[in-house]
Amino acid sequence: MGKDVPKEGVLVPVSPGSAIFHDRILPPLHNSYLYEESKKAFIYSSAHLINNGNLQKRYAAFREEKRKSGYTDEELHETFGFLLFEDESKANKLSDSGLLVGHSSASTIGDPSKGVYVSKYSDCLDLKRWYCGKSGHIAIVKLTKGRVKEVNENYTLNLTAPTEGFDCHESDQLKAVTPTTSSFLAFERTQHYLYELRKGRRDTEMCPRHVCPFAIVAFSYGKAEPAAPESSEKREEKTGKFYVLMFRAFFSLI
Q: Which residue, of 18, 33, 170, 209, has the fewest CB within 10 Å?
């Protein structure tokens, strides 16, 4: 966690004005926007780092096991993912339990009862577009995706099962997502589906080790609405007032 972070407690408060907030909390969020307007619209008011030694050890153990088994540096590359919570208490539970299977309503690239869904982008966390006044909590999680399999999106009741020999599913349409993609499709196509098959068995871990909660951040969304164009009557009224003032000023000088 770094020598400048207190080790007491699972949830460690971080002041918005602190160096830790600016150097460790904000960069993952700012560097993971899909929409250009997010740079000005998101306001992050408070944060907690997650200091759960058990989850951190499990995460490190996964990485070490995969390194010894021959995973490449690219497969072991560490990145961040994001989750949206309306309720702070539910967000805080993540710091104790880790991310458990069955948490998500998404199901297009993997069975949610056997793995977890995490968003690639920090501003693409819901099926709906953001609106002014929206608030909540964003969980930042560390990811080691491992071996990734691109899969077709599946909208049937016969859900896609985890693929043996892989650790993560991604949509084969992910690379096609742009800021002009509808919020519904952008959300679904930019998910990571992560799972951990148990050795010698067909079932999966309830809490995949390669997803490690990192921080919880409170936010509000305040996108500025464009000003409505003035009517011709309003412009004429302003012009008339201007000439009256100019006329008065001219005669006051005579």
A: 18
Alpha helix (H) residue ranges in 69-139: 88-97
From the CA atom positions of the chain, what is the Rg in Å?
24
Q: How far is CA 37 from CA 30, 118, 193, 195, 218, in A?
A: 11, 22, 27, 33, 19
Measured between alpha carbons, how far is 53 from 76 in angstroms, rounded to an integer? 21
How far, in Å, are 9, 81, 120, 143 from residue 33 at the CA level? 30, 11, 9, 17
What are the CB-based long-range contacts (under 8 Å, 24+) for 181-188? Answer: 183/124, 183/126, 183/127, 183/128, 183/129, 184/127, 184/128, 186/34, 186/121, 186/124, 187/119, 187/124, 187/125, 187/126, 187/127, 188/106, 188/108, 188/127, 188/153
* Residue 5 structure tokens: 């972070």
* pLDDT digits 0-9 by tens, 139-163: 999 999 999 999 999 999 999 999 9
pLDDT tens track for 186-239: 999 999 999 999 875 678 999 999 999 999 999 999 965 444 454 545 544 444
H runs (alpha helix) in 69-206: 88-97, 183-189
Place of tokens 């992560």: 194
pLDDT for the residue 250: 39
**Angle (CA) 100 77 24, round 5°:** 75
Question: Do 214 and 83 form a contact (C-beta atoms < 8 A)?
Answer: no
In terms of phi and psi (left: phi > 0; alpha: psi -120 to 50; beta: otherwise), the region of 113 is alpha
